[in-house]
Amino acid sequence: MSSSNRQGGQVRASHILIKHQGSRRKASWKDPEGRVINNTTREAALSQLKDLRDEIVSGKAEFEDIASRFSDCSSAKRGGDLGPFGRGQMQKPFEEATFALKVGEISDTVETDSGVHIIKRTG
C-alpha cells in the first residue's frame, strides 16, 4: 500500500447518482420537477443502483453508457466523468470511497446527502 494514495494528490472518477426522497436536491437534468425523485424511496434507489452495477460488472453494459442514461447528476452528459479532484472537494463518504479504489475499479454503493452512487476511479 503506497502512502501516496492515502495522502493528498488528486484522483479522477466517474459516477452514477440515483436520487431519492431523502436527497438534498430533489431535481435533476432528467427529472427537473423532481416527480420521479420524490416518489423514489432510498431502498428503491439502492436496488436500482445495484442492478445497474451488476450489469456493468458482468460486462453487459458500459459504465459510461449507463451513467449517460440513468445518472441524476449533470455529469451524465460526460458519461459520469467528474474530472480530477482532491481531498475536501467532495462529500466525505464519496471522497473516502474514491480514494480507496484502484484505477479501473468500481465501488459498491455509496450514500451521500445527494443520493446513492457507484463510483468508477479513472485516474
Search tags:
Chitinase A, domain 3, alpha+beta
What is the strand and helix layout of this fold?
Blueprint: H1 3-6, E1 10-18, H2 35-38, H3 42-57, H4 63-70, E2 81-86, H5 92-100, E3 110-112, E4 115-121
Antiparallel strand pairs: 1-2, 1-4, 3-4
Largest sheet: 4 strands, antiparallel
Total helical segments: 5
Envelope shape? globular
Summed over residues and divided by their number, the pLDDT gives a mean of 94
| Biggest β-sheet: strands ordered side by side in the sheet | 2-1-4-3
Percent in strands: 15-25%
**Unreliable spans:** 1-6
Report the order of strands and helices. HEHHHEHEE
How many discrete structural domains? 1
The total of beta strands comes to 4
Supply Rg.
14 Å
Text of the CATH class = Alpha Beta
CATH topology category name: Chitinase A, domain 3
Structural class: alpha+beta
| CATH architectural name | Roll
Would you write up a description of this structure?
There is one protein chain. This protein is of the alpha+beta class and 123 residues long. It has one domain (3-121): Chitinase A, domain 3 (Roll). 33% of the residues lie in helices and 20% in strands. The chain contains five helices and four strands, in the order H-E-H-H-H-E-H-E-E. The chain has helices at 3-6, 35-38, 42-57, 63-70, 92-100; strands at 10-18, 81-86, 110-112, 115-121. The chain has a four-stranded antiparallel sheet with strand order 2-1-4-3, sandwiched between helices. It is globular, with a radius of gyration of 14 Å.
